[in-house]
Amino acid sequence: MDIILVCDVMMDFEGSIRPTMCLATELTRRGCTVSMISPLMSDTVEDYLNQNSIMPINLRAKLFSKNLGLSLLWFETWAREAFLKLNSRSIDNNSSITINFSQVISVPASAWYLQGPPYIALKDLEAELSAGFRVAYNFLRPAIDYADKRLINRMNKSSLLTIANSKFCASMYSKLGLRVSNVICPPIDCQIFTPSTSKPTSDYILTYFGKETKFSTVKKIADKGIKVKAFGSKLPNLHRGITRHHNIDFLGHISTEELVDAYSNAVFTIFPFTHEPFGYVPLESMACGTPVLTYNLQGPMEYVIDKGTGWLAQTDDELVQIAVDLWKETYPQHMRSACVNEASKFDTKFYVEKWQKILDVLCNRSLALHPTDTNQTGVTKS
Q1: Mean pLDDT of 294-313
Q2: What CATH number does residue 316 fall under?
Q3: What is the pTM of this model?
């Protein structure tokens, strides 16, 4: 079986790329011929794909924001497609099985994996943007909203099936008139994310610094005298008052091994977010045996069980108060094993099994319609 997977910009394997890589790796192991298309791949990514028998198709889009951070790089890639159709123009796709994991390339696809409308994410992120970015966003917002809705409609019409990464994500697209065929949550490798110790140090709480983080809420918690460790990459809207706070230890980007250890030794993980269709951080923390404090909304509320594997707050103030109470009084230790058990339901093997069932149906349908067709993909680089 020849399969093409279409991706966003691939500078690493995190975020929206992880579900694609998981499926590509497993399909290759099962003997499928897998190709991956991206507007732009780093040399590291391209080399890794080649070494693992996955054919990289790097469109090598000329992007002005290449050295300005992943968020701006992604936005420029999205704008190229939403306004000018530049990314998809480089692809001549005749493959019988194509799965589009991208939000920035509109191509005929057997299935489109929905990971959240960009214009809604930007709307929710506005409050955490710096003053300059907020002014620019408010000026461009009408054009962004219009262009993204038009792109979503175009991608929907060119896709046989639409599959969302969470129930919340499915609800966002349903409100735009899309018929979501199925929900397949992103995977977590429970062989990697597993408790690294049976005796956690429990002398800090952990959080993630990313574009969706509510930094103001993290600061309020640190102001209460709680020791916070934070991991993540440097962001343009990351205020110095956060990274230099006497109760916040910003670790920056850390290795997977260090991350597992950080999760495992934390009292609990906080995940205050502005917009999150699914959310890897809470699930990774649970897989390492550490409960999660987050909001009772969007993606995380679908798998964080209140007072079972974590705590779900209704407001920022309630989240801060719960954090203070837990820091002083702790919680039942059986919650740690409950976290591991719940996270195991999202292991990669279940994710791949769900995709395999869909691929079997798509393959049989393709053979019935095109019994003598061969799979070819022509690409011209921009």
Answers
A1: 97
A2: 3.40.50.2000
A3: 0.90
